[in-house]
Design goal:
Chain lengths: ~55, ~250
């Protein structure tokens, strides 16, 4: 197992590359999904306020 | 069967399509990435020509570089369609593509840097391919900065689209610059390796292709999530957004 992670002594270079790629891509979708949910909530609040003012 | 494609050129009818397809793109991206990573680490040889284990960075580096160029071309393509037909959805598509394109450019540079340290002995070199990949990153960031700097969204769309169009020159330079290495010339010398796709072992090629597909599916998912937000934000107050919000209560 540790032999696998050492990658013939190049583990640092390989895992820095793969780790960064995974981190950045996972963070991007999580951030985008959260932002979309927040936007939906904000728009729904605004719609409720509008309909409340109209009645 | 005739499909009326113009039907989908309006955000109102395209939103549900985007909404429905995101989980499928995300799911296939994860599945392909798992298969691709398994193939990359367990079916490929430990050496590639004169390179040792560190060559495995190829499986995320080359697909990231391909995606960065491809996403730039797609972004510029939507920008041109927007400029010609003045369709607002095309501009939204271009705007949604820019950050994901920038991320893949950054990842290509980052992984390339770690690969370069092991195989060339340097983190960075002002080689033509590396330099223009960096300029590509600045073009993506420039597109985003210009778009946010202009308050009127329609003017922002057109100005940023023009920038995207002008920057297209970078892509063929990145692609072809490695083909001019003349070791005896000072003017035309590239450090970056030329493509060895034709001579490469089939297990390495397969892994690279699967990873590229995973990145592509990921790009669809990320760009569509962003596009979904952009469509709502820019069309808020319109009938279809109000109807959508009404249905979600």
């Amino acid at each position: 197992m540790s032999e696998f992670f050492s990658m013939g002594g190049y583990g640092f270079y390989i895992w820095s590359s793969f780790g960064m790629t995974l981190l950045v891509l996972v963070c991007e979708v999580i951030w985008l999904s959260r932002r979309h949910k927040a936007l939906l909530q904000r728009l729904q609040r605004m719609a409720r306020l509008d309909s409340g003012a109209g009645s | 069967m005739a499909i009326n494609w113009f039907k989908y050129s309006s955000p109102a009818s395209f939103y549900p399509v985007v909404d429905r397809t995101i989980p499928w793109f995300m799911g296939s991206a994860v599945l392909l990435a798992i298969i691709g990573l398994y193939l990359s680490f367990f079916t490929t040889p430990d050496v590639l020509q004169d390179q040792k284990q560190y060559y495995r960075i190829i499986f995320i580096h080359v697909p990231a570089a391909w995606m960065s160029m491809w996403l730039y071309l797609v972004m510029a393509g939507w920008a041109v369609i927007g400029l010609i037909f003045n369709t607002r959805l095309s501009f939204m598509m271009a705007t949604a593509l820019a950050p994901t394109g920038a991320i893949f450019t950054l990842l290509a540079l980052w992984t390339g840097s770690f690969w370069g340290r092991t195989s060339w002995g340097t983190w960075w070199d002002w080689d033509p391919r590396l330099t223009f990949e960096l300029i590509l990153l600045f073009l993506f960031i420039g597109y985003m900065a210009l778009h946010t700097a202009i308050d009127d969204p329609r003017r922002a769309d057109r100005a940023a689209a023009l920038l995207a169009l002008v920057g297209v020159f970078c892509v063929p330079i990145i692609y072809y610059s490695v083909q001019c290495p003349d070791p005896n010339s000072l003017n035309c010398r590239a450090l970056h390796q030329t493509s060895s796709l034709r001579s490469i072992e089939s297990s390495i090629l397969t892994s690279m292709m699967v990873m590229t597909l995973a990145y592509w599916m990921y790009s669809f998912a990320a760009v569509f999530i962003r596009l979904r937000s952009i469509m709502l934000e820019r069309e808020k107050g319109s009938d279809w957004v109000n109807e959508l919000l009404g249905r979600m209560k």
